[in-house]
Amino acid sequence: MQEITGSVKKDSIPFFFQLYVNKDRKASEALLKDAEKNGIKGVWFTIDGPVQGKRGMSYPTLPNPHLHISSTRRMMLSLYHRRRRARKS
Length: 89
Fold this sequence. Notes:
Layout: H1 2-5, E1 16-20, H2 25-37, E2 42-46, H3 69-88
Parallel strand pairs: 1-2
């Protein structure tokens, strides 16, 4: 953690830490204290549920017949130009 947070200027960007909750509570507490010591401002907790969720790879994805590369390109260009105009004003 210190290697990552120490590689940038202090308080130049916020850091977040994702904690996978450990069965050993003291190990989780040590990680949280280390995160705080290294200037991490936020924590995400990952907690496993008792039932497995649906995984994306478990279900085939069907192509969308209404979505074409040309329409996606048009949409992206439209967003780009809208943001560019907003920056100028």
